[in-house]
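Notes to self after the call with IL:
- keep both proteins in one doc
- input above output, always
- annotate only the second one for now

Protein 1:
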Amino acid sequence: MTLTMLATHGIAMERSTLAFWVGYAAQELKPLWHRLRQLLLDSSKLCVDETPAPVLDPGRGRTKTGYFWALSRDDRPWAGPEPPGVVYAYAPGRGAVHGLRLLEGYRGIIHCDGYQAYKTMTRETRADALSGTLAFCLSHLRRQFVKIEREAAPAPAPVAREALERIAQLYAIEKALRGRSAAERRAGRQAHARPLAAALKQWLEAKLDHLAQKSDTAKALRYALRHWAGLTLYLDDGRIEMDTNAVERAMRPIKLNAKNSLFAGCDEGAENWAVLASLIVNRDL
């Protein structure tokens, strides 16, 4: 209940009092947050994402950009035994150091987009590198072609259009396999999706040779080829999804709350927000 709503009921309360209560509750519940995080880190695969959020910068009279990170597990598409879960964490940035802190000790598959920080986190030359394997998001690749086609309209964008049609074929196969066991999904992908993926890669390589190398279409094709191993990792493991849509859905409450509240009052307030949101959102998964 907001201060305005309380006032309509004749309850006068200082903002600082309400903030103290929220902070106190978050600190009391922090052990549950740690336990939830550990349960997720014990998983064989996780989705990871981060999103910006404005945070008041005390003494400067303006906001700065902080980031909410999310770890998500959802094994329902392959009827996995573990329940879905998500944990949020606030960090002042989105660099690898913050992701490493959140994922410290994790060994498994990391679903993510192609953001450089995730690659840095698993780089073997780092002393603190994670031993996880990156599975990249096909939906992020698809969006690049959607954007190219939209910006080209009303003119055609034939390469983007064909890329979208080829990706749609892969998604159609995945839709038919949803809800089946990991072994069944792997078998179905090997039989039906792998030949299409191999043909897609050959097509990407052939088209790239005939495009202006600085064009957005060429950049999208290079992105696909550069991340190919991670984009197609799902073909060999029925537990892996094609995309990171699960964690993006888990981020929606954070984004909505950020929009409605305008900004967090300080870094500590954002940290409290992450703790409480972790417990609230898990209730509805």
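Protein 2 (the one to annotate):
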Amino acid sequence: MSDTRQTFAGLAHWEIVFWYALIVVSTAIFFWGVARLVLRYSRGGSNVAFRGLPGRIARAAGIVLTHKWIKRRDPLAGLGHALIFYGFLVLFAGTAILAFQEDFAKPLFGFDFWHDGFYLGYSLVLDVFGIALAIGLGIMAVNRALHPPRYDYRAADRRIYVAGDWVFLASLFFLAFSGFLLESFRITQTNPSFETWSPVGWAVGRGFRSLGMTAQQASSAHFATWWTHGVVALAFVASIPFTKAVHMLAGPANVAVRDDRAGKRLPLLPATATPEQVGYGVVGDLTWEHLVSLDACTKCGKCHVACPATASGYPLSPRDVILDLRELAAHEGLQAKIGERIRPETIWSCTQCMACVEICPVGIEHVPIINQLRRRLVEVGELDPMLQSTLESVYETGNSFGEPKRKRPRWTRELGFDVKDIRKEPAELLWFVGDYASFDARNQRATQALARILHAAAADFGILFDAEKTAGCDVRRAGEEGLWAALAEENVATISGCDFVRIFSSDPHTFHTLRNEYPQHGGEWTVLHHSQLLLELLEAGVIVPRRRLGYRVTYHDPCTLGRYNGVYDAPRRVLAAIGCELVEMPRNRDNSFCCGAGGGRIWMQEQPGIKRPSEQRIDEAAELGSLDYFVVCCPKDVTMYEDAIKTSGHQGELELRELSELVLESLDLPVDKPVAAAAAGEEQQ
């Protein structure tokens, strides 16, 4: 006799027919729910559509199977989800294999493989992965209980989310638990020796027999458990498109269709767009990819915790924006007006720092969605008065300070040497200086330090003088797409008329825009951030530090330099080259905490009683103990943190330095004496 088991043991013929009828009903409900979702998605606009879909699917498979995004900064959640994922997947595959054997291979072709060695191995594998599923569910339950801030559903009508999350976990746990019970009752009833290959069921069955359970009692318990387990399993399958479980479908789909450059290169506004087509005003304005992402959200709360606006008490949670849009789409339809649910002050709280996008385990594009909501608010005139005034200044003067363009190059007057006008003579390097580096008095010191370093290095560089206009990064992220396009076209035309090899900027916002967004308007150049240029000069020996500074410093990663462009090492290597001891803040590199300036927030009125992101960041640095300097390499960081040091009560305890200022100090040379020449002279002596 073969080692196997009977599939429908103890069931009458009509019960088996009824079971298959339930399967048909469950499957029909599942596919009806999926069809409703697909129909909703198809009514959205299109962005990336199906371009490069095979490659996208392959990439998504790698991300999903390795849990690469889920385990970021939360290995416990990654482990728990992996155990659930693979446990569920293998158990589902086991059920599918059994169905294939009983409903196709055996009745149609007489092919019976579910016995002996295959059956025993099958039993062992399913027991092992059933245990993995149960352990994973336990880990996720504990993780959820220990991290309540992530699941802070403030709106009263969202209390159902907490219950829904626990019901989801409980449903899976019940299926795993009842599956083992079912197995143990069967083994207790039949007591075959080969069922030691089902270690959990065999062990529990032995326990039942030791307690005196008879074969008849086990048969009755098996019958009741079989139907309970089966009905719950079919109900779970039917519920997938309508509950939290929908992320099992929408999550991988969203990973496949998401834009790899989401938020880093925003979509252009069609030239033929009417005012009603600018941005997102109703749910139906969302692209179908963004509609998919609404259902992909697992409500894990990672974006909620990472968001600097949320941490500061602003009325924004990236998670809640996604959930608001999901609820509008599901309950009010695609014509639902977004502004009736999501208030303007919520949308204007965003710094566009990309922390939410970077940490999302299913690749939701919060920042591009919020940017589209801003475009509509700008179009209808619902924006902060200070922001509106700044945008008007940019339109009228080409800079966010509202200064006459003739004042832009005035910072060069104190240098003691001439800077090339690159419009009139060629240079190897075009320096696009930026607004804050040009007009702000504190930032001018850092700008002049960089100019003196380049002069000392005999670098061939020039600037645009009064022909430069703001690059427009924050103009665009504030939702004023039309003004940004005009700035981009004018700057591209100006730059294209110059003779140079590479372009650089000390402003990460400008660096990002030149590098990633001006190509949308024909501006294709090799673009560097000044930290990369400084590192290049140091490593090539063009500039040689005369003394190791020996300062104990911490360094803040700017969002647009780090998360947007992946530049993390260059500033750190520069600090190491000039002899600084770097002490990292807990949140560093891709987990850096935003200063609060981005997305136009630097141009908006602050709310009273708010603990600003910049102040929280300075507090974080102060907790490191004695530091000589808080180092930045972004003009907006200079502005934000100089103020935050004062307002957070750390003045006299912490001092800010821009990277260029430290490099210049390490050179310890007269500013009119090129370092390369001086070094050569020393070698000859």
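Annotation: Residues 256-382 form a domain with the Fumarate Reductase Iron-sulfur Protein; Chain B, domain 2 fold (CATH 1.10.1060.10). The radius of gyration is 31 Å.
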